[in-house]
Structures are given as C-alpha cells and as structure tokens.
Write a structure and sequence with these properties.
- With 128 residues, the chain is an alpha/beta fold.
- Helices cover 35% and strands 16% of the residues.
- It has a four-stranded parallel β-sheet.
- Strand 1, helix 3 and strand 2 form a beta-alpha-beta unit.
Length: 128
C-alpha cells in the first residue's frame, strides 16, 4: 500500500499577521469593516437559492441594513460566465452587500472574489 503524497501548503496559508498586513495594507477587519458598512443593525443572512436580488430588494424595503447573496460555488463562478451572469445580479441601491462563496481552494476563491470587487462590500466563505 502506498501513502499518497501530501500536497504542498500554499504560501499564503503560512503567512504571519504582519506579512498579511504588509501585503494587504488597506484591508479592513472587524469593527472597521462593520463601521464602513454603516454599522448594520438588521442583517439578512444568506439562503441558498433564496437570496437573489429581488429578495434583497424586498428585504431592504423592510429595513434590512445589510444583505448577503445566496451561496455561490467559487469554481463555477470563476470559470463559467453563464453561471456568473445568471447567479450574480446587483444594482447601485443594494449596498452594503456581502457575497458568499463555497470553496475548497483559496486560489479559486480569490479568482471568484475578483469578479465582485467594487460591486460588493465583503466576501464570506461558507465553511460548512
């Protein structure tokens, strides 16, 4: 019986907090991000296949301050323009909004997230 070779750990998995801050100096964290989004009091959590734009617009009419998108599959979002166009819809009035992805590869997650830069306020990783 052969033991499968353990894949190398990506470099960004082993970065120290100081290295992360040096590489991403403008990254907001914790309360800084919360305050930048207007300190939302009423948050509509992500729901698979239910948190599309129409739902988020309706939620805001009933005083939601922050909405999440449905969970998107990061690999499909990155590789398939049709999937991305069908799933990701937004407008100018729906800020702040957080986009949720499921992913098991940080590089794929980063590529998927790059498509929503400037259109979303944060990216959320679904871990379960």
């Amino acid at each position: 019986m052969t033991v499968p070779e353990t894949p190398a750990v990506p470099a960004h998995f082993t970065m120290s907090e100081d290295e992360i801050i040096a590489k991403f100096p403008n990254r907001l964290r914790g309360y800084d991000l919360f305050r930048k989004m207007g300190s939302p009091k009423h948050v509509v959590a992500p729901m698979v296949d239910q948190s599309e734009l129409a739902w988020r617009i309706l939620s805001r009419r009933y005083d939601a301050d922050l909405c999440y998108t449905p969970m998107f599959h990061a690999r499909l979002f990155h590789q398939d323009k049709k999937y991305r166009d069908e799933q990701w819809q937004t407008n100018e009035d729906e800020r702040p909004v957080i986009v949720q992805f499921c992913a098991n590869d940080p590089d794929v997650l980063l590529k998927a997230a790059s498509f929503v830069v400037g259109q979303a306020d944060a990216v959320d990783l679904n871990l379960g």
